[in-house]
């Protein structure tokens, strides 16, 4: 595996990685892992929203509710449509069954939406924390002689586990 340019440059100049920068890199690495987990929660909530919405409206004909009363309009394809189209006896399900299915879809959408909002807010707050730690991290490296560009492009996961100088073997290797 080839050594990234910033590590080779740091090795050639013997650039120090201050303890504070290693600590900040470790904190950033942890924050990035947290962000990945939050992104997974956002994706899950979005998937649950889509599934609940499909139960509600997938192919549902705009005049489907007429079936409850006269059985004339095709309802489409969804959990609600199946209740409206016909029960095993060839008649539409009761209004109570349809309303129960609507209520279940409503609460599934509401729960998924709140999960999405909570994860979005947590991610927004995390982004603010990441920005502050990055500012401190870049400052620590530039004080140690790194250019701002080198500091901005540094691999925080690498630096979080680095030894005193870049390029020395990590413990356990």
What report would you give on this structure?
The chain is an all-alpha fold. α2 packs antiparallel against α5. It has seven helices and no strands. The protein has one domain. It starts with a helix and ends in a 13-residue tail after the last helix. The chain has helices spanning 5-13, 19-57, 66-69, 79-85, 95-143, 148-152, 156-160. The relative contact order is 0.20. Helices cover 68% and strands 0% of the residues.
Topology:
Layout: H1 5-13, H2 19-57, H3 66-69, H4 79-85, H5 95-143, H6 148-152, H7 156-160
Helix pairs in contact: 2-5, 4-5
Question: Which spans of ≥5 residues are poorly predicted at pLDDT below 50?
Answer: 1-13, 163-173
Biggest beta sheet attributes? none
Order of helices and strands: HHHHHHH
Q: What is the domain total for the residues?
A: 1
The shape, in one word, is rod-shaped
Average pLDDT taken over every residue: 76
Query: Whole-Å distance between the termini?
Result: 14 Å
Number of helices: 7
Which class do the helix and strand fractions yield?
mainly alpha
Gyration radius over CA: 28 Å
**Helix coverage percent:** 55-70%
Strand content: under 5%
Tally of DSSP β-strands? 0
Structural features:
173 residues; mainly alpha; 68% helix; disordered N terminus
Please sum up the structure shown.
This protein has 173 residues and is mainly α.
